[in-house]
Amino acid sequence: MNDIATSIDDAITSRHSVRAFLDQPVSRESIEHILNMARYAPSGTNTQPWQVYVLAGEIKTALSAAILAELEANPEAEEREYEYYPTEWFEPYLGRRRACGWGLYGALGIQRGENARMHEQRARNYTFFDAPIGLIITIERRLNIGSWMDLGMFLQNIMLSARGQGLHSCPQAAFANYHRLIRDHLPVPDEEIVVCGMAIGYRDARAPENIWRTDRAPVASFTRWLGF
Length: 228
Description:
The chain has helices spanning 8-14, 28-38, 57-73, 93-107, 115-123, 145-164, 179-185, 208-211; strands at residues 51-55, 133-140, 168-172, 192-201. It has 228 residues and is of the alpha+beta class. The relative contact order is 0.25. The model has no long low-confidence stretch (mean pLDDT 96).
């Protein structure tokens, strides 16, 4: 089956967070092409505030093993260097978050209270969901919030370019929880903040977690038309 996005609209609408990948290799040339396209992301005064560590093979496996071991030994030890979510949830964001979480668990047949299965699914983040390629993305810590917005556009370019190569992805803020372990395994200097990871590979189209989709609010819910 052809899974290559052939237009910008197709790349946008077919992109989703894939949580099960095939055991099919991805070449360095493909990743280089994706990053070559992603670098055209806009950034304030062309600062280009991104750094990428591309992982494969034994290095990726070793990092995953170290994080999983720490997760099992001390599941409450996670810490990240920035706040991704609000400290107190409120609507409509709380409802969307719950719908996303329980939608995923429902697709996997995980019921409320099945904490061991929830933990197991959460741990799969740290294997990059078995994708052959893992990215760790960082940003210079002296930069400010505008550069973080620029980084978001760069990340989106990676994911859309991947669709043009027939690949899928999953951006993973979970890796930021283990920035100390990441620094032990990768040459990430203290001057950089670990922002997220990203899995890249070929999607397992039969996996239930990949068949399930989140919904999106309609345009009318977030748009105010003025002067029309």
